[in-house]
Amino acid sequence: MPVLRPTPENLDRAAAALRAGGVVAIPTETVYGLAANAFDARAVARIFEIKRRPTFDPLIVHVLDEAMLARVVACVPPAARALIERFWPGPLTLVLRKQPSVPELVTSGLPTVAVRMPSHPVARSILERTGTPLAAPSANLFGRLSPTRAEHVERALGHHIDFILDGGPAEFGLESTIVTLKPAPAVLRPGSITIEEIEQVTGPLPAEQSDANHPVMPGGLPQHYAPATPIRLVRAETVPSAERERAGFIALSQRAEGYAQARQLSNRGDLREAAARLFETLHELDDLGLERIDVEPLPERGLGIAIMDRLRRASNVEF
Ligand code: AMP
Ligand code: MG
User: Fold this and answer.
1) pLDDT tens-place string over residues 142-151
2) Which atom of ligand 1 is nearest to the CA of 59?
């Protein structure tokens, strides 16, 4: 499971491993992904095994370009086309009708496939060298924190993976926004592209999110993205000082006295910076053996919607 710098030789090695049915962790602009040839059901099965991910949780397929997209999806309706023009390559995933050749395991038997075109140069270079669409969920154990650095992947899954390509810290640090088009455009998972940005292309979207317990949306399960340390969403001003001594504190830019550890996601109160630092900060505090992590709720606008979505799921887990 060597961690490789993305030199041309190493990219070739990783691409060869993928062509041979291997599993490789790759950097993307959202989080690190655990990639396998999307058309190779045995390779894809290894992703589920390594992540201990239930097979009812379909994967996102990554494509290099339009030609690769056409091998994965049966058609691109006009609304999808407009979103593609505006946001690809980038952190937008579209749910579209699949080609019959996409294995059922990738889509959990659904007639649709989730697909996106990443912008990260290493992800693109691997897609180009492999020559095949890559199925790639986040490179973490199912239900746990998403990895935004190669070290996070190495610690969680290192023993099981052929290679980890190190592309530095993820630019967005938050998963892609997932949009379905049928029967009408709707956001299935808030993410790195804000709902307002999507609406600039689609027009107003329904306010209702998809049912959080629906089995096709495990990223939408109420318990997900969790560190091992219990998380609590709480206003620090309501927390007595005795409860702060062995706990950590995370906020957008507010400070709180008396906590064993305290982190601000963005001193400037910038939600983009906060999103990019969210998982990294949770990983960091999770490693410190704290009793609990208190998180001050962030404003629910723009990227704050996706950040709060992840924090709610992280804080729902029972230990
Ligand atoms: P991950 O790759 O771990 O970020 O998660 C991918 C997310 O995309 C999961 O929550 C899936 O439920 C969702 N997804 C993948 N394929 C589909 C699909 N065909 N329809 C709806 N959601 C999907
Ligand atoms: Mg994930």
Assistant:
1) 999 999 999 9
2) 15
What are the chain's domains? 3-202 (3.90.870.10), 231-315 (3.40.50.11030)
- For ligand 1, say whether the CB of 139 is within 6 Å of any of its atoms: no
**Distance (Å) from CA 120 to ligand 1 centroid:** 20
Q: Which of 217, 225, 279 to mutate to test the pocket of ligand 1 (most atoms within 8 A of CB)?
A: 217
| Residue nearest (by alpha carbon) to ligand 1 atom 3 | 137
Q: With a cut of 70, list the residues of the chain below it in pLDDT.
A: 1, 208-221, 317-319
Q: Is 219 in the pocket of ligand 1 (CB under 6 A)?
A: yes
What are the tens digits of pLDDT across the range 281-311? 999 999 999 999 999 999 999 999 999 999 9
Q: Are 31 and 173 in contact (CB under 8 A)?
A: yes
Would the pTM count as exceeding 0.85? Answer: yes
* 310 in Cβ contact with 271 (< 8 Å): no
> Quick check: 302 and 196 in contact, CB under 8 A?
yes
Q: Nearest Cα to 116, choosing from 138, 136, 94?
A: 94
